[in-house]
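Sample 1 of the test manifest.
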Amino acid sequence: MKRILLSAFALSTVMTFAQQYGGMWIPTEVNEKEMKELGMKISAKDIFDPTKASIKDAVVQFDGGCTAEIISGKGLLLTNHHCGYDNIQSHSTVENDLLTNGFWAKDMNGELPNPGVTVDFITDIKEVTKDILAGTDNLSGADLSKKINDNIDAYKKAQKIESYQTISVRPMYYGNKYYAFVIETYKDIRLVGAPPSSIGKYGSDTDNWVWPRHTGDFSMFRIYADKNNKPAEYSKDNIPYTPKHFLPISIKDKKEDDFTFVFGFPGRTTEYLPAIAVEKIMLETDPAMIAVRDIALKTLDEKMRVDPATKIKYASKYARVANYWKKWIGEVEGLKKSNAVEKKKQYEQMLISKNPGIKTTIDQLTQKYNEQAPYNLHRAYYSEIVRNSDTFTLAGLFNNYIQSYEAGKMDAKNIDALKARLADIYKDYDAELDAKVTAKILALYANKTEAKFLPKDFDQLKNETRNLGMMDNVSKISMITGRTKDDNNVAKNMDKLFADQKTLVENLKKDPLIQMFGAFKTSYLETTDKQVTALQTDIDALQKKFMAQQMETDKDRKFFPDANSTLRVTYGKVRGSNPRDAVTYGYQTHLAGVMEKYIPGDYEFDLPKKLINLYNTKDYGIYKDKTGDVPVNFTATNHTTGGNSGSPALDANGNLIGLNFDRQWEGTMSDINYDPRLCRNIMVDTKYILFVIDKYADAKWLINEMKIVK
Ligand code: ARG
Ligand code: ASP
């Protein structure tokens, strides 16, 4: 009896230690009371205040995707290694591969510019629902969208902003509310430092999405500004940006249950879907996308294993494809294990019992989702086929090009953009290998897809062996794969061929690959795309209603809008987890654990000599914790998603304690069904970051810029 009471007590404290549903809060609407109850010592205004310096002034969206934060008075930026990856790669040469060797500027003059890379500050946030939904009461469908867009334009025009600012108006709660964000974009962003991949990507795909983790996933950049500290294009005369605020870095030991919050730009979540939608993701679309990538990855791996050149060429592509492949597998597993669909159904029954009107909405949603399901499944296959076949991606680009050219839309700027995109694909494209990938995924596609969705002769494509021969032959004679020797080879004669567009288009139209892809695409557009879109318009309207009904009915629940790449705050506690029966995860890993995983010469678990020496000599300086070892990664209950990579994890006083970069396997379904028992975000410990900068890289000049809290 005592035991039961005790565990019931333990359970209830578990339930109350953090907000029951996770949450990604709009920074102007955080639940200050709850944050303080959980241990926060600063106020909500310290986090976000449009009128004065606050933590928001140290947090930026990095190049439209990840998050980064300012950690010195000279605009020094910290983000993940995997967020800076492409830029680190772009400065690499065969003689000096910065991904392999790492890079550390000796001083500011040694920092490397990255044309095109931007960072965005959010300087103000306002709820503008009234303005945006004015006059929309009796509208629906296209009329409603038009009125909303007009209102957004009118709102933007009426605001007084500086020349370097823009306004973005975004829907929240499926269009029940609207928020305006004032954005300042800086454009001169230079690479300052990055550890070698053997630290920054340690564990690579094997450890990706997995805890316990041992990755030093960080890199550093610096924001440059004009002489008035305002945004400017790259110029050697620009000066390091002086921020309104930068994050002090704490190297205090962490304890389980310490309060923490994460401030950043989560990309996309769908927490408020009806059970039927979750069921379709779990049983249909996720498995379809996984199946295509299974085949693509396996085919690439066969060649990457035996050919070092292919290994290098495909490293980034492989990692990208594997990342979400692995995430979806974890997501499906997690949704099943956590009984997500059943729980959603029970939740819906609860809502209906309080508000019977909701039944109609759910029934209508169920009907629409069922109607959409076959089209959605086809869409999942189709888009994954195109995404995982460079050959089809190329054919698709040329297909669009032909249409744009014929519509008279190909001006010099568009041609340059297309050429750049093509060059980017050709750079890491192995046409022979890709023909193989394409042949195999086409066979899967033809076998899994209802005949009514496919062009007439597609039946033949069910045979993989036949496809392999066919694709290889076609790719050898196509002008767009780079395999022919003649002058019509676009990959090799790009400038020359684009100089005479009329002839180019005539020839492209005769290309067998472009014709094949064209048939494939036309059939997709006619049989599927239109239907998906039309049904989605209905679903969106119903989902908006369902969202409003959930909010009206479930008064005990604190609602937050799904992630949509806007700035958010999430909070929780430093914590390990108990993901399975008899399995307990600690919250912190250490350098000794990095060494435990070390496999000399392995592409995922090799380590630099110098790091091993530091470990052997225990040269840890001030970066060890009470165990005498250097802490490397830690987990907490912050509710994060893709886009939160690079986000600062802060302590009760607003000091930086970690750098967010991943989630743990058992909780990857958090985008659809956040479960506080299983979901953990994974961060690099600030002690490990500083240890690598100071002891491994000897970059003391960077440490000296920072404000370290001991
Ligand atoms: N899973 C993390 C995220 O979604 C990290 C990905 C980068 N690391 C990798 N091994 N691919 O972005
Ligand atoms: N790794 C992710 C990112 O790049 C973060 C996550 O999905 O947890 O944003």
